[in-house]
Design goal:
Length: 188
């Protein structure tokens, strides 16, 4: 038999009714199962990516992060996270993440693994050296000397991941180094 428009619509209606019946909450509990985070240790933290500062819950098992999600009780995000924050778990658990210092000496074509203490010492040494070589104590303008205490060999750049307190400390540290080229990524 050919399918008439009327038969087609009738069939569609019956199928839709069938669907509506079968779409009733079944006893197979979709929402009632055990939470996958049940029994895990949980702690709260703040997303490190940007200064919105969304709250997160981190679940750990045997000292290892197994889940990160938005904190529904946090006043800023109330449980929601943007795509970057949602992917934070992959930062903590990522075989491509570098966890050791990689150093390439001037002129070298290869990276060497170095201890963290060595890297901190090296950075401090180079900063001190640069500051000493480029420090300008006074500047003469219109025949008059002005005390400026300016380090012209260094610049500091803050990023959106810094919160208020970190920006405050970063700014203090930069000024203590005599840095006047102090900028923030959001202004560039
Ligand atoms: S990166 Fe996204 S999740 Fe993280 S603090 Fe900023 S808005 Fe929130």
């Amino acid at each position: 038999m050919g399918v008439t428009r009327r038969n087609f619509l009738k069939g569609g209606g019956i199928a839709a009714a069938g669907l509506a019946v079968s779409a009733k909450p079944a006893s197979a509990n979709v929402d009632g199962g055990e939470l996958r985070t049940k029994g895990l240790q949980s702690s709260t933290t703040v997303c490190p990516y940007c200064a919105v500062g969304c709250g997160m819950i981190v679940h750990t098992k045997d000292g290892r992060i197994v889940n990160i999600e938005g904190d529904p009780e946090h006043p800023i995000n109330r449980g929601s996270l943007c795509s970057k924050g949602s992917a934070l778990f992959q930062v903590a658990n990522n075989e491509r993440r570098l966890t050791k210092v990689q150093y390439r000496a001037p002129g070298s074509d290869r990276w060497e693994e170095k201890p963290w203490d060595w890297a901190m010492e090296r950075i401090a040494e180079l900063m001190k050296d640069s500051r000493d070589r480029n420090f300008v104590k006074t500047e003469t303008r219109d025949g008059k000397d002005y005390l400026v205490n300016r380090n012209e060999g260094m610049a500091f750049l803050g990023a959106a991941a810094l919160d208020n307190e970190e920006c405050y400390l970063w700014g203090k540290f930069a000024r203590a180094m005599g840095v006047s080229y102090l900028e923030h990524q959001a202004r560039i």
